Each structure stands twice: as C-alpha cells, then as structure tokens.
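To start, an entry.
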Amino acid sequence: MKLLALSGFVPEQICDITRFTGYEGERKINHYCSYASDFISQVLSDNTFDGAVFPRSCDSSRIMKSYLEDSDKFLYQLNIPARQDDLAVEYFAKEIENYRNAVEQHYQTKLEDIKDRSVCISRRNKQIYNNYKNLEHISYSKYLNALHRMLQKPLAEQQVLNHYEPVSSCGKRVYLIGSFLCDEAIAKMIEDSGMKIVGDNLPESGRLASAPEIPDGNDIYKGIAQSILSSRLSPSQNNFQKLMARDLEEIEDKDINGVIFAMQKYCEPYEYLYSVYKKILDEKGIKSLKLSLSDMENGKNMALPIEAFSDTL
C-alpha cells in the first residue's frame, strides 16, 4: 500500500503514510484552499499512490472526499474532535480503530506492529525536538527541507538529521506561524533578508516536536488519540486562547522581534486566527507580516514584502 496523507491528525502508528508536502503538477480546483486543492490534485493525478487518508477538520477538508470519490483509490477520512477533553479522546480513539480496520479490510492484511511503530515515532519526535531547541544555531531552511524529505519516507527509513553546519545566531529574531509550509523557498528568503527563524508552530516542526509520548496502558488507540490531541493545537481545534497562549509564551521567552504568518489562501481557520493574533501583537509592540500563499509556487512573489518587513525590524 502507498497512502498519501494530509495533516498531522493522521496517525502514523497504524501504517506507513507519505506526508503531503506540496504538489507541483496541474491544479484542478480554483478558488479553494490551496493546500487542500493541491492534495486533491495529487491524489487524482499521481498513480504511484493507491490511496489517501485525510482529516475532516475544517470547511475545506470536509468536502474533500466528494472530489475524490471517483478516483478508484482507497480513501479514508478521519473525523477530528474540536475539543481536547476525555470525551474527545474516547471519540478519536474509536476513529483511529475504525481507520485501522478499514486499511486491513481493503488491503487484506493485518497491522500488528502499532506499539513498535509508536516507540519509533516517539524516538523520532524527540530528535526533532532536540533540533527545534537548537534552531538559533542552525539554518532553518535546511532544517525544514530535511523534515519534508523525511516525512515522505516509510517510518523505518525516517532518519532525523542530527548534525547541521553551525550558522551565526545573529539576526533579527522572528517566529513563524502557519499551516504546512509547502514552499520551502520562503524560509530561505527570510534568512537571506537578515532575519533568523528561532521558533514556529508549523505542523511539520513545532507541532510534531511537541507530541507527547503515548502513555502506558492497554488501550493503544486511546494512547494515540491522547498524543495527537495533546500536541500543540491547530486552529481547527477551536481553542484559539490556548493556542495563542502557548505561542506567545515562546515568543516572549525567545525575545522575538517579529512574527511572520505564512498562510494558505482561503484557509478560514488561519484567517480567523491571524486577526486575533495581530491585535495582541500590536498591543505588545511586536511587528507582524502576513504572507497569503495561493499555491506552493507563490514564493517568488514574496521576496519584496519579506525584505521590506526585515527593514522595519
């Protein structure tokens, strides 16, 4: 099986997935969340994938299955609870169990290494966290590129790069907020403009590194659900206050000069989040920049605003 997965809400503990990191082919849907649109286009056009698994967590993702129903591929959509309490864990645990059963039934196989995979994932996330803590002394663009390449490999082949060529910690300190940053060139533009990314809440970086280990217990599904729902929050989880409190604590601890929002166009959760964030940052005297990306090739249009923002810091 080869499954293309969208979002960190897809449990890697069940089976190998290839994490979507951006599609450069023909786009089939316009005026739609570009991240979701590119995912749909890749599922439809890339015959190396025989299935797809994705969440039902926002307006864009809720209708994705309707675009893919005629693909003749294995499809599974996970319902994601917006809450983070015990009831949400119970609900999501059942969703994860149903996902496992669906994979086993479709591919006529037994998935019996879930606990071993959980150990591997916890070890990998710890290594990512160690790199994340050291962002001040490494190139963020190289770190991000290494993460993206890693997430496209089977779990057994996911090797975290633990050695980066040291770089100067000098520069205008910025914090990066947004959905999955498909366009890696943006991180390089930020660095080349004299800014230093020392923290983020991206799904493939800060949020992945924050996932707690699965607690000991007999119910592996509850453990997986608890770990995913206890990671740093996504805007789609309906808890802006807790999300912002965690980010603002890090922004203050790291003496951030500016905050950059790299957001996919037409992404409602991040649009709502940005308006609330900007008000708080303005009150604290922290400058911010909003980059609205229409697709993963949009970075070439971002050089000028990034350079202008750097000049203001």
Notes: The CA atoms of residues 248 and 281 lie 9 Å apart. The first strand starts at residue 3 and ends at 5. The two ends are 49 Å apart (CA to CA). The longest helix spans residues 86-107.
